[in-house]
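Dear support,

I submitted the protein below through the web form. The confirmation email said the job was done, but the results page showed an empty box. After a refresh the structure appeared. I'm attaching both so you can tell me whether what I see now is the final result or a partial one.
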Amino acid sequence: MDGELRGEELERRTDESETDAVERRRFEQERCETREEFRTFSEFASDCVYWRAPNKTILYIAPPCLQVTGHSPDEFYASPELLDSLVHPDDRLLWKNHSHPADGDRSPKVLQHRIVTKQGETRWVTHVCRCVCDKAGTFLGVRGSYYDITEFRRAEQALREHEQRCGRITETLRDSLFTVRIENGHPVQTIHSPASVAVTGYTPEECSLDPNAWIQMVHEEDRAAFEGQVARVLSGQETQPLEHRIRRKDGLTCWVRTTLVPHYDSQGNLLSYDGLVLDLSEQKRLEAGVRQAQKMEAIGTLAGGIAHDFNNILAAIVGYTQLAREDVPEDRRVQANLEEVLKAALRAKDLVRQILTFSRQKEEERTPLSIGSLVKEALRMLRASLPTTVEIRQHIKCKSDFVLADPTQIHQVLMNLCANAAHAMRERGGVLGISLEDIDVDSDAAGKHPDLEPGPYVNLTVSDTGCGMTPGVREKIFDPYFTTKKTGEGTGMGLAVVQGIVKSYQGSIEVHSEPGKGTTFRVFLPRIESPVKPETKTPDVVPEGSERILFVDDEAALANLGKYMLERLGYQVESKTSSIEALEAFREQPDRFDLLITDMTMPNMTGTELAREITGIRPKLPVVICSGYSDLISEEKAMAMDIREFIMKPVIKRDIAHAVRRVLDQE
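What the results page shows now:
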């Protein structure tokens, strides 16, 4: 009997042991499945998710830990205590109590604290964690997640600091803040800070009428990108700051950078998101200024290259036309034709000089100058670029139109004002009017022009019959980089430059415009007395000579032209098209020549380099440099190098004759 009982007991215990083993295997399988489900879910989360065992071992940590902490998952697996050591020393007590919830307490714990990244940077995170237990209530560890809220905390800190200094942060903060409240995944309310007026032109009350007001303010070309950012926030994805344009209430476009920061409840549901809107207008203006400066530098370089080649072409046209005219009897028709060719070539020479003046950047050099002559030059340049539907009318009635100014800057004023006037009439045509008169501003008149002191002035008026401007546009036309033109048609710097130049001369600029009635600009510049110039008589006879000249130009047509022109003046000329050959010829017989005339820009050896080599052999030999254009030489630099004369191409026979004679007579 006892044996039977012992057998039954043994059988019962065996059954229980097998049942326990099955239960343990089922439990291990469930735990593995749970861990795998947790791992799979975490791979797609944007937050840093972890699972920590009761003994603090890291069972799993999601890859985003690298972006938040600077440490890779492998580092956390290798050093379980790393998660605790990341916590900022001042927050470790809170972390210690928070990261190990009491056994059986499955309620989530939420804490915001600081961490110190691997790179030593302090960042803020929101930490959410809770206990994990099996069905039997056995404590399996802690699951947690934390996401980076540094930017949001910095914004909050900035607000607190401003509030401490000013007392009313939202009234003084330049950047706009807005909060969008979310219910069931949809925006239901938007709250804007008072600074939104400065950025958008809309009051907070106007913005709050529609929960999607900010999206509607986004420029239509950037709206899809911005809506994509909002969609990512609503779906719990990570977002980056977005630079985009907005349409202000006044219709103007400005650039902003918007950062969206989400807020969640303890269950991870999106409650709202904040938007920090930074006004990038000044930054974009500076960037545009840099680009414009680079463009102007490129234009100047291009103009110089064109001028060099074009002046060489003109030099051949002018020179050979002069020679041909000398060979034709004055009573022949061809003489008159050649005269017209010469006049046209000289006008082209003036045009190239004006282009170089406009594109060349040099220090301001104020001299007495006649505005009337500059107006005529500017109109000649402008006429070629204007459509035939634009009529130019000029009315110059000055007794005295002299001002103390830099001619390049006055040229800029004229060209900018005229170009803007022409642009306003590009579609329907109209009349471009330019008038010039001298006026005297007395005390009463100065009251109507607050920027002017009583005294004599030259009044330049530029008007058009174009589309005109609204009051809002008229108030901003002198702002740097403000433009109503399409992208690529204008930089917004023209009128700002004009105003800066005029004010630097203690002058004034005024504008009157109405939509559909055209625009009129009036520029007032202080007038000076006409400079008295001593009378100079140009010799009627072109001087000649018999000295020996070495003439060097890498273009054969110009080298031959120089030889023929100087030989007709009586000189003995040897021409070379290579600076190397010229130097070799001079070395063979250094005393053979009395003068060197050389082009500046040549292959292998420039004109100044050739002059340096030759004067090294014969120090007192006089040198004349000719140039179509070069940024390596100017008249001032040439004189500093002891070069006797500097002549700009194309060369007129009379000019080179006098230059050669002056140099040789000095010797």
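Response: this is the final, complete result; the empty box was a page-load delay. The chain has four domains: 24-148, 164-279, 362-533, 548-666.
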